Amino acid sequence: MKALLLIDIQNDFMPTGSLAVPNGNKIVAPVNAVQLHFDLVIASQDWHPASHVSFAKNHLGKKEFQIIRLEGLEQTLWPAHCVQNTTGAEFHPNLHTQKVETIFRKGTNPALDSYSAFYDNAHQKSTGLAGYLKEKGITELYFTGLAADICVYFSIKDALAEGFECVVFEDAVRALDENTYQQQQEELKEQGVNYCRTADFLK
Ligand code: VGL
Ligand code: ZN
Q1: Taking 90 as the threshold, does the pLDDT of residue 8 lie above it?
Q2: Protein residue with least CA distance to atom 2, ligand 1
Q3: Is 6 in the pocket of ligand 1 (CB under 6 A)?
Q4: Residues 34, 70: contact at Cβ < 8 Å?
Q5: 159, 127 contact by CB (below 8 A)
Q6: In what residue span(s) does the Isochorismatase-like domain sit (predicted)?
Q7: What gap in Å lies between CA 103 and CA 88, rounded to an integer?
Q8: Would you say the ipTM is above 0.90?
Q9: Structural contact between residues 7 and 166, judged by C-beta atoms closer than 8 angstroms
Q10: Domains of the chain, CATH where assigned
Q11: 56 contacts: CB under 8 Å, gap ≥ 6
Q12: Backbone phi and psi for residue 62, each to the nearest 5 degrees, phi listed first
């Protein structure tokens, strides 16, 4: 059985948002189009407290997009984004959410970032998504969302490790950094990830 994952399709990752992904808004139409063809649609939401450790403004003298070490992990310092209960954290207003069965929120721990929809960056705590999908008999995951090179990428890595087959709808993702995304694509293809256009899937 297959499920469709909508990763972080939130206002702050749109071109007008605080952590803008170029052309991020272009994914909304293809995401809506494929939703009707899945029995299970799940969304994730980046959901940070205002005090979150990943925000540059919470570190004296540090700049946005600077990389620091945090508990032995590299941490990029981002502009404040997806703060709980703000407009920036809401899904894109045109995203259809009627078919979304459950929303998994992540990045709620103020002291740790969480790119993947499955685990935090230190792999300390699960969101429960893997067990949830397995309980429903899901074996194949179709990925959409933002950003392709951050949260979608790390979600796919965890999904592979959990034994799911993974497909990326390539016109339903956009990257913060196009070069990083291209490199990751090579890596993930070698690990068995398939890339497919929504129009070909709908044919
Ligand atoms: C994301 C950076 C920081 C994402 C979330 O959803 O790709 N990127 N937090
Ligand atoms: Zn975040």
Answers
A1: yes
A2: 150
A3: no
A4: no
A5: no
A6: 3-199
A7: 16
A8: yes
A9: no
A10: 2-48+82-202 (3.40.50.850)
A11: 62, 63, 64, 65, 66, 77, 78, 79
A12: -105, 150
